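Structure in, sequence out. Go:
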């Protein structure tokens, strides 16, 4: 079986890396040939860091160029047994531009791991894409409910990590010789607003304990009264950075956009054996079982309370770290889900072959 996967970006982007690139070795072993055809390259992330006027200018030049390359690569779409698109082919262009190409696919699916239907111009378009696809693969129950409005064949495949590449902590003592607790957050820069929501709570916590907020991203953040340590994200050092956290946090706002998220930060922390505190929003409340493998925190007071408990309780950190690792190995690991993704693709392919003329 041959699959063309039209990803949003190259491996450096988390969604592309965790939704398809990490599956390649396993799928190849099963005889599935996957050709990943990214829309953007690393240069696009450089553009996103530019000041607004320059960013717009570069996007107006770069995006049409990349759209043209994608259009050229779509000409051979009939050569694939399955075609999977990440969200959409041409962001912000009307669906008619995509349908010209997609109607030539033998079997078509869409992979969705964010509530992009809430963003301007994307809602109606994504509904049309889902309606014309033969199947959809989504990252959580909230997205599954949305996709099911337009498509009868929806498969839930959570975002997972390769636990064979991520080693778990075996020592839950505070690593800093001076006793400073490293509270870690990793993610894309456009999600830093969730972290800024914790400024008051972290400032209050700083009055009680020596803490440092370590931010691993493409840019840092400033918080009054909080010692913030910025570390530029790199693919090669990502796992080591996460393993260096004493505690991992994932704050969210309780809205529909947040309910569409797939909890990658939590899964990364927990795979590394790092105890976690999270907002119980969307899939976060499924990944973290409050008081068993981590803590929930719903407001600033609870963030201070739960982080304070973990700052001073090594045994609880150990328990959460071990339980968190077990949770990921069982329910959010590549080894658990790669066979299931392969079976989904094989099932869709068999259905096509059994159709008249298939």
């Amino acid at each position: 079986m041959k699959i063309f996967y039209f990803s949003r970006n190259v491996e450096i982007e988390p969604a592309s890396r965790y939704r398809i690139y990490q599956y390649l070795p396993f799928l190849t072993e099963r005889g599935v040939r996957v050709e990943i055809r990214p829309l953007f390259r690393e240069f696009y992330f450089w553009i996103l860091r530019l000041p607004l006027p320059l960013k717009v200018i570069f996007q107006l030049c770069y995006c049409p160029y990349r759209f043209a390359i994608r259009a050229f690569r779509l000409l051979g779409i009939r050569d694939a047994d399955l075609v999977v698109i990440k969200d959409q082919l041409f962001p912000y262009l009307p669906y008619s531009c995509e349908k010209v190409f997609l109607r030539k696919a033998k079997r078509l699916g869409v992979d969705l791991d964010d509530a992009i239907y809430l963003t301007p111009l994307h809602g109606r378009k994504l509904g049309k894409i889902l309606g014309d696809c033969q199947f959809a693969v989504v990252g959580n129950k909230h997205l599954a409910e949305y996709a099911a409005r337009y498509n009868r064949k929806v498969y839930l495949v959570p975002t997972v990590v390769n636990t064979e590449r991520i080693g778990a902590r075996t020592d839950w003592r505070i690593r800093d010789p001076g006793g400073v607790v490293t509270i870690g957050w990793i993610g894309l820069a456009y999600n830093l607003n969730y972290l800024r929501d914790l400024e008051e709570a972290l400032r209050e916590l700083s009055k009680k304990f020596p803490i440092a907020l370590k931010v691993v991203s493409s840019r840092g953040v400033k918080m009054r009264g909080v010692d913030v340590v910025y570390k530029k994200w790199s693919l090669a050092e990502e796992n080591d950075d996460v393993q260096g956290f004493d505690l991992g946090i994932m704050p969210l706002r309780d809205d529909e956009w947040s309910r569409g998220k797939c909890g990658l930060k939590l899964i990364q922390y927990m795979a590394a054996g790092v105890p976690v505190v999270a907002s119980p929003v969307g899939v976060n409340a499924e990944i973290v079982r409050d008081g068993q493998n981590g803590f929930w925190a719903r407001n600033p007071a609870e963030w201070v309370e739960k982080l304070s408990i973990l700052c001073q309780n090594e045994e609880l950190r150990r328990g959460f770290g071990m339980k968190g690792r077990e949770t990921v190995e069982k329910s959010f690991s590549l080894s658990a889900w790669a066979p299931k993704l392969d079976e989904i693709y094989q099932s869709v392919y068999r259905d096509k072959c059994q159709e008249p003329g298939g």
